[in-house]
Structure formats: C-alpha cells, structure tokens
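Before the break, one more example. Copy the sequence into your notebook; we will annotate it together after we see the structure.
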Amino acid sequence: MNTKTSHSICAVAIVKGEASFIEEWIVYHKLIGIDHLNIYDNDPAPAFRSQLKAWEDFVTVIDWPGDLTAGWPGRNQQTKTYAHSQDTVRQAKISRLVSLVLERIKPPRF
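Here is what the structure looks like once it is written out:
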C-alpha cells in the first residue's frame, strides 16, 4: 500500500473465488463513499488480477495466500489479515478503516 495517500475511509476485505462479481462489489463501495479498498487476495488467480487493473487507483491488492498449517486456518487468517491492515493504515494518512465481508450484492425484493 502506498503510505503517502490521504484517504479518509479505507475498506479492507479478504477475497477468495469472488471474480464473478468483484467489479460490481467495487463499484458499489465506491458509490457509497469508500475512498480506497485494500483487497487481501487469498486465492491469487490471473483472471481475478486482470479484472482489477482498471481499478488501480481505487484498489490495492495484497497477496495473502494463507497459512495452511494453522489449527483454524480461516479464523486465524482473518485475525492476521485485520491486524496487518491496521498496522498498514497506521503508516498511511487514513482516518477510518472498515473491515468488510465480500458478499454478492443482491437487489432488494419488493
């Protein structure tokens, strides 16, 4: 992450297998006022990376393959990810950090 930025609100999310709707998710969070996204990529795939090239100014992708030796890999990975993100934003000029869960956006039913 570039530590000389001045984002007000930075969101952090861990991704794995969300290539089919990642761009929709990014657009949504940009529209609601997030200034920058830090995406921790838990499943690096070239197709996923190529989708994010258009968003280089808004999205920082951090390789985060996980620790398969951990007793609780998923839970342990989340803890390490969010601790890393907090350390990273302390070095940058970011006033708020939001941790998000990546979910497909579904339109409301009326």
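The longest strand covers residues 9-15. The chain has three helices and four strands. Try to locate both features in your own notes.
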